[in-house]
Design a protein that fits this description.
The protein is an all-alpha fold. It contains ten helices and no strands. The protein has one domain. Helix 1 packs across helix 3, helix 6 crosses helix 7 and helix 7 packs across helix 9.
């Protein structure tokens, strides 16, 4: 059954991340030189509003898509449903607690593997200019953009909306029209590739060189996060995926700062 209240809850949850992201990305763009022959950007307040509205519309669309297709793909979230139906505090905590625990237990080692891959494999492999641009972009974004936009908004977009839609579409192609584990894993993989590709425009605007090595790095690293966040969403619920995704960004900042201090020492 479709619940507009679920959509409303998700949109309210996304508002802080959307607001911070729209401010951060305009701030970053404003610091970049304007290529010769290109028009000047609109004033910053107007550009922030445009980014906020545009991204907000996409989030709204995929929140609606997820609310419609997640239950049909066997991906309904009992906590969200209970919250939307106005159930009491203790019942909500009973539903939320296992999601939070799963997000922590899976997200902590998942983040450790991600960060080890970035610092020991891909960072030394990428060209210096791309690494510098990536890290400058992350510093400019700030921790709250990374945690609230990356952790909440991206999970609503990719896991709640896109993954649910893909799982339902793939179920139509299976014998009997049922949702299978293979179908869900395929949905996790495809939505993860889309998630990885979605990072490229921001990094390109920040000055990264879109080389084969760059594409390999963002594909492998973001696909890794998508695999375990997608599994958490499938097996436990959206909050579990959000917690796990937040852990990546929360653990990444101290390491970024440590690397930056060593570089300037």
């Amino acid at each position: 059954m479709f619940h507009w209240s679920v959509v409303f809850i998700l949109l309210i949850s996304c508002l802080p991340g959307l607001a911070l992201m729209s401010y951060g990305i305009v701030h970053t763009l404003g610091r970049l030189p304007i290529p010769e022959g290109k028009k000047k950007l609109p004033p910053a307040p107007i550009l922030r509003l445009l980014v906020f509205v545009q991204t907000g519309l996409v989030v709204t669309l995929l929140a609606v898509v997820g609310a419609y297709f997640a239950p049909r793909a066997g991906l309904a979230d009992p906590f969200l449903l209970a919250f939307a139906q106005g159930e009491g505090g203790f019942r909500l905590w009973e539903l939320l607690r296992p999601q939070l625990l799963a997000g922590l237990l899976v997200g902590a080692p998942g983040a450790a593997v991600f960060l080890a891959g970035y610092y020991f494999v891909f960072r030394p492999w990428l060209d210096d200019a791309t690494v510098a641009s990536m890290e400058q972009f992350r510093f400019a974004s700030g921790i709250w953009v990374r945690v609230l936009y990356g952790g909440v908004v991206e999970e609503v977009l990719i896991r709640w909306g896109l993954l649910s839609l893909l799982a339902w579409l793939i179920s139509l192609l299976t014998p009997g029209g049922g949702v299978t584990a293979t179908g869900v894993w395929l949905s996790i993989l495809v939505s993860g590739i889309a998630f990885a590709a979605g990072h490229a425009p921001s990094y390109a605007a920040a000055g990264c060189k879109l080389t084969p090595r760059f594409w390999t790095a963002i594909l492998v690293l973001n696909l890794w996060v998508s695999l375990y966040c997608g599994w958490l969403f499938w097996q436990h619920g959206l909050a579990a995926a959000i917690v796990a995704h937040m852990l990546v960004h929360a653990a990444w900042l101290p390491l970024d700062l440590r690397v930056a201090r060593r570089a300037t020492a």
